[in-house]
Design goal:
Structural class: alpha/beta
Helix content: 40-55%
Radius of gyration: 28 Å
CATH architecture of the largest domain: 3-Layer(aba) Sandwich
CATH superfamily of the largest domain: Periplasmic binding protein-like II
Strand content: 15-25%
Length: 342
């Protein structure tokens, strides 16, 4: 007597053995696993675009918090990552080594990099940011009162140092009339609030941390020393390697456009911006709010670098010996201008 399987075969009916089903299932699983592996490999091999940043109220953090940076990465098939630095010097070294494609830093490092490296300044993203502070109950009321006093600063190569020297000169004081000490920028506020020194100059957020404590007050803001754009000092710049700009102009444009959109959010909805910054840079909302309300960090929609502002700032750095007479910063305003027109 024939088995049921033989009878089906003899009758011409289609027969699928259990073994065949198992083999096909195993092959299907293997194929699916291969596809997943290839997808993972592709993801791991995505080009990485690294942007240098610092823990400060930079608009690019708002662009990241809103998801704009991640979306740009998806559109261009790249992974955009942030690398944090304490200050501009190491950031520029990483940019020179090709470890970064873009950087957001103080205007001093931005102009220096665009003068001496294959780099272009693409946007001026923050104004102000620097202030000279004294303890809240200090008897010092004017810069002239600092004669014979001790002042701390972040170093002769920092942009704060020449601002301090100019501020003193404007008040009729020379370097020899005060005692100057170099410390880390992050330590300036701590020393001032502790009354360990008579005064100190540094950049935001260190300024806002000190002021928000109630133990320090502003003696002189940067805008009173060197107003350049909209009546303010130039605080922060966004700049990029020239080879990256040439290779990825559309990507560069999208990043700059995202930053301009972030500035729009900051201006239109500061409360939301404060919330997003607090998430990204982990500062207390009260400190960020203090900075914005008192104009320590100032934002304007016109982010485009212009000839007058760039040259004025470069000449300032030349006058104090940070730049050489033959140094000329390179900049490209077209990305910011297009972003503002969108």
């Amino acid at each position: 007597m024939k088995s049921s399987s033989n009878r089906l075969r003899d009758s011409g009916a289609s027969f699928i053995s259990p073994l065949w089903i198992v083999r096909r299932a195993v092959r299907g699983v293997a194929f699916f696993g291969l596809m997943l592996g290839l997808a993972a490999a592709h993801a791991n091999n995505e080009e990485t675009i690294t942007i240098g940043v610092q823990r400060a109220m930079m608009p690019i953090y708002i662009a990241k918090a809103t998801g704009a940076i991640a979306e740009i990465g998806k559109q261009h098939g790249v992974q955009i990552v942030f690398r944090s630095f304490a200050y501009g010097g190491p950031e520029n070294k990483a940019l020179a080594a090709g470890e970064l494609q873009m950087a957001s830093a103080g205007m001093g490092p931005a102009i220096t990099a665009s003068s001496r490296l294959p780099v272009k300044l693409l946007a001026i993203t923050i104004l102000e940011q620097t202030a000279l502070m004294v303890p809240t109950d200090s008897p010092v009321k004017t810069v002239a009162d600092l004669k014979g006093k001790t002042i701390v600063h972040p170093g002769a190569k920092s942009q704060q140092y020449p601002l301090l020297i100019k501020g003193l000169a404007d008040a009729g004081l020379e370097v020899g009339d005060v005692t100057l000490f170099k410390v880390k920028g992050s330590e300036v506020g701590e020393l001032v609030t502790a009354k360990a020194v008579d005064a100190g100059i540094t950049w935001d957020p260190h300024v806002s941390f000190a002021l928000a404590s109630g133990k320090a007050r502003i003696l002189l803001k940067a805008e009173s020393i060197l107003p350049i754009k909209n009546g303010h000092y130039l605080g922060n710049g966004l700049y990029a390697r020239e080879d990256f700009i040439a290779a990825r102009p559309e990507l560069v444009q999208d990043i700059i456009s995202a930053v301009v959109s972030a500035v729009d959010l900051i201006l239109d909805n500061p409360a939301k911006a404060i919330e997003l910054w607090a998430q990204e840079i982990e500062f207390a909302e009260e400190v960020i709010s203090y900075s914005m309300e008192r104009g320590i960090s100032v934002y304007v929609r016109n982010n485009a670098p212009d000839k007058a502002s760039v040259e004025t700032y470069a000449n300032f750095l030349k006058d104090v010996g940070i730049l050489n007479p033959t140094d000329f910063p390179k900049y490209d305003a077209s990305f910011a201008e297009k972003a503002m027109a969108e």
